Amino acid sequence: MEILFCGVRGSTPAPGADFVRVGGNTSCVALTRTGEDTPALVLDAGTGLQRLTARLGGAPFKGTLLVTHLHWDHCHGIPFFRSGDQPGSEVTMLIPDQRDGRSAVDVLAGSMSPPHFPIRPEGLEGSWRFATLEEGEHAIEGFEVTAVELPHKGGRTFGYRIVDSGGASVVYASDHGPQAMGPGDDGHGPLHEAILDLARGADVLIHDAQFTASELPLAEDYGHATVDYCYRLAQAADVGRLVLFHHSPVRVDDDVERLGDLAPAGLDVTIAREGETITL
Ligand SMILES: [Zn+2]
Ligand SMILES: [Zn+2]
User: How many CB atoms within 10 Å of residue 136?
Assistant: First the structure.
């Protein structure tokens, strides 16, 4: 499969000259099955979705938006997703069931309806289907997908393991606040069973790296992980490659590019950059 990073920021977009090398759009990762021309499974729908429209040459999107949770940085691209919002599109949007009795479309409309935005989700052009997802195994767009709930502040949040028909695997845990489960051995949060089971042996682990060790109290406050936690997890889960993702919107390019400097020897670490691809 091909993994295309359409947006790699967390919280809010980061425009401007200090952010052009890494990219300023919020979370969105598009997966293309081997042998296919265009992405059919898209992880999160942040402002990076605009890059997917460019990747499709403006053609209608036919596939699934698989969203980790409903925070703005993961859904903000939907109203501006031209390849989805046009005749001929066939979009399924899947969100974690919030266990409050609301339908998927009503949950999304919490931030996408007047007076927040001119239209509700049902007003998007083309064919859209909105549905909730539970933890467990799912078959989506030709991939095997495992959904696991992860600790994160404000609403139910999933991490996903995606496996293609050839056995290649990518784990996507964009927002993960392990400190909610205790300090762990080093104060950065425990390597708990849910994340270890999800990540174990994956070819690629894309993980929340919004904060550094010196920002540890902020990580706990906002429900995110540290780069140090990413390293410990990647080693314990024996992943093929770690991708540091969900960069802080105030971390300029020079500082993002230094995030990998303290990586343990032997660990393959990549900084997620908008527009780059990984092929498995
Ligand atoms: Zn986020
Ligand atoms: Zn979040």
Answer: 9
User: If phi over 0 gives left and psi between -120 and 50 gives alpha, with beta otherwise, what is residue 238?
Assistant: left
Helix, strand, or coil (residue 178): helix
Q: Which residues pair with 52 in a beta bridge?
A: none
Q: How far is the CA of 193 from the centre of ligand 2 (A)?
A: 21
What are the mean pLDDT values of the chain's consecutive 10-residue runs (280 residues total)?
98 98 98 97 98 97 98 97 98 97 96 97 98 98 98 97 98 98 96 98 98 96 97 98 98 96 94 98
Cβ contact 42:25 at 8 Å: no
**Which residues, chain by chain, have CB under 5 Å from ion ligand 1?**
10, 73, 175
**Closest by Cα among 243, 244, 183 to 219:** 183
Q: Which SS3 state, helix, strand or coil, does residue 267 take?
A: coil
- For ligand 1, the distance from its centroid to the CA atom of residue 245, given in whole angstroms, is 10
Alpha carbon of 7 to ligand 1 centroid (Å): 11
